[in-house]
Amino acid sequence: MTPKTIQLIGVPMDSGKRRQGCLMGPDAYRTAGLADALRDLGHHVTDAGNVQPSTYDATPHPHLYAHGETIAWTRALTKTTEAACATSLPIFMGGDHALALGTVHGAAAHANAVGRPLFVLWLDAHTDYHTPQTTDSGNLHGTPMGYLTGRAGFDGFPNVPHPIPHAQIAMFGLRSVDAQERAALQNTDVTYIDMRHIDEHGIAKPLSDFLARASEVNALLHVSLDVDFLDPSVAPAVGTTVPGGATIREGHLVMEMICDSGLLSSLDLVELNPFLDERGRTAQAMVDLTASGFGRRVFDRPTRAYS
């Protein structure tokens, strides 16, 4: 494949939920050798260091956790992402999933600037389609897709001039969806593939259909990969464990198909909490999946020893 210019961007963001630890994620990816894995595949890789939030009002919100800080991260990441997409393929090393409030927002701004649609592939156990008014927990990592599709109620956040059309979104791996989110999504054109669908029909066909639709309109593709897309038996380092997730083989197939499509333009790696990991195996699994998204094939995979 043609070598890509990749920019690694650390996002030590831990404001999207109360359980702390994701701020250590960027350094865990660095330690697990993400840059070297991509360079070994022939890509040009630079590490841009870590993004920091803009200044913010730390006054507690009556319901939402770290409201002001999350707004500040969203502003900073929107600007960073739009600039990075103009010169490279950015990989955002998170950080909790609230980082997508800014990364997808910035990617949408870039797509608009170059006159191409943005498709979003959401690999996650959850839809994250809440609004600040519907989230019972007050944790904003459950709201990015609500925000990015233009749902109301995100007071104080940057305006969303280029909301992602629902028909340009696919969610794979779902298995923990709140009633409010389910009711709201059922009235949209979002492609949502839960684990029962994957168990019964496989993951390749619906993903192939989504990627084909994106290709037909010359879309850019933003992929947001949450650790909890995978089953916790293979990826334990996440604070939102839901049994019954994707196997490591299904994860590799997804990333290989994304690579084959040639559409990938930006990537989130989110919700890695190294404090919960077992000898770094979740970080390594995420690095290996990323490598599959950039050209590593079955026969090229290294043997891992954890003993």
CATH topology assignment: Arginase, Chain A
Low-confidence stretches: none
Count of DSSP H/I helices: 10
Given the helix and strand composition, which structural class is it? alpha/beta
Read across the widest sheet, the strand sequence of neighbours is: 2-1-3-8-7-4-5-6
Number of strands: 8
- What is the arithmetic mean of pLDDT? 96
Instruction: Please give the radius of gyration in angstroms.
Output: 18 Å
Distance from first to last alpha carbon: 35 Å
Number of domain units: 1
- CA-based shape: globular
Roughly how much helix do the residues carry, as a percent range? 25-40%
Oligomer: single chain
The major pleated sheet works out as: 8 strands, parallel
In short:
By secondary structure, this protein is α/β, with parallel strands linked by helices. Helices cover 34% and strands 16% of the residues. The chain contains ten helices and eight strands.
Could you give the topology of this structure?
Layout: E1 5-11, H1 25-31, H2 34-39, E2 44-50, H3 67-85, E3 89-94, H4 100-113, E4 118-123, H5 144-148, E5 169-174, H6 179-185, E6 191-194, H7 195-201, H8 204-216, E7 220-226, H9 248-261, E8 264-270, H10 281-293
Parallel strand pairs: 1-2, 1-3, 3-8, 4-5, 4-7, 5-6, 7-8
